[in-house]
Design brief:
The protein has about 325 residues and is α/β, with parallel strands linked by helices. A six-stranded parallel β-sheet has the order 3-2-1-4-5-6, covered by helices on one side. The protein has a six-stranded mixed β-sheet with strand order 7-8-9-10-12-11, sandwiched between helices.
Length: about 325
């Protein structure tokens, strides 16, 4: 293990009080690493405050142990921290809460696995060799402590399973399986995780998928699948952003498609661009055209243009490749 990582994580375990944050529009790896690390630190007597922008008691990841303890940024706004950890976030501008954590913490530790990470922390534990930030947290914690509880194990395996597409994606390595086996040995509640991630889709979610598929565009010689969903439509179907994680992967798997794109309108009128590729197309590089990033086969970005303009910009850029 990198000696600097050892020192950084060791200092984190000794800290009396720590704040944790992740990226905007958190996914399974974001929630899993946030709550998994929170539980690990608490086993060492660290007082932990884990922040998110919104909480949804009926959300896709609300089953995770400790979810109810998450704090929104509209509370404890005057609290100052000696140390804060930003998890699963490749860029400073994508950190939940904007500059809040940078204004309320003396030192920032950046723990992430995105190839596009900009190393914005005072200390950075970053490597794209891990399938997920949850796998990286496991790697760090296993070498420092045996205090990975069944609760933290459940959180960490959730992030591994979501970021590997249930172990289907190319980022799944032998170490990923070793990490997962170890977490199951530590009594991760794999049954609950599988049920909530893969066998408990809401009727509203399925109805929205059906609606969206009717408006699916297959363009550029069949190589690109394209969906867009405005906020009005999502509100009409009563679904949240995290419910849409599977849509872009679903259309990527259409025969002949190389790139799948989902545009989603946020509550503040920005357009979230979700990108997936199947084989050779580097969506991380493509996302950088919009100041985004991620991984070669899974990336994202935000656009301040409206839906129509963003769609035109994305398609015009894709014409340079297909």
């Amino acid at each position: 293990m990198n000696s600097k990582w050892v020192q950084t994580f060791g200092n984190l375990l000794k800290c009396s009080q720590v704040a944790l944050v992740t990226h905007v529009f958190p996914d399974g790896d974001a929630y899993g690493s946030l709550l998994g690390l929170k539980n690990i630190l608490e086993q060492h007597g660290v007082e932990v405050f884990a922040y998110v922008e919104d909480k949804n008691s009926n959300g896709k990841f609300s089953f995770l142990p400790g979810y109810e303890t998450l704090i929104t940024f509209d509370s404890n706004t005057d609290r100052q921290f000696p140390m804060a950890v930003v998890l699963d976030c490749g860029e400073k501008k994508r950190v939940a809460g904007g500059n809040w954590i940078f204004e309320h913490a003396t030192k920032i530790i950046n723990i992430d696995h995105h190839i596009s990470n900009s190393f914005f922390g005072h200390d950075n534990i970053v490597s794209e060799k891990f399938s997920s930030t949850c796998e990286l947290i496991w790697y760090l914690a296993k070498r420092f402590t045996e205090l990975i509880t069944n609760e933290s194990a459940t959180c960490l395996i959730t992030g591994i399973m979501t970021d590997t597409g249930n172990f289907l994606y190319d980022n799944t390595s032998a170490q990923t399986f070793r990490a997962s086996a170890d977490l199951i040995d530590k009594n991760a509640d794999i049954k609950t995780v599988k049920f909530n991630l893969f066998h408990s889709k809401s009727l509203s979610n399925i109805r929205l998928l059906g609606y969206a598929i009717q408006n699916l565009q297959i363009i550029l010689g069949g190589k690109v699948a394209f969906l867009n969903l405005d906020k009005y439509t999502m509100d009409q179907f009563n679904v949240s952003y995290e419910d849409l994680d599977d849509f872009v992967a679903f259309i990527r798997d259409i025969e002949g498609v190389e790139v799948a794109i989902l545009l989603k309108e946020t509550k503040n009128k920005q357009i979230k661009i979700s990108l997936r590729s199947k084989s050779y197309f580097d969506v991380n590089k493509f996302a950088q055209e919009f100041n985004g990033g991620g991984h070669k086969k899974a990336a994202g970005a935000l656009s301040n243009e409206n839906m129509e303009s963003t769609e035109k910009l994305v398609i015009d850029l894709l014409k340079n490749y297909f």
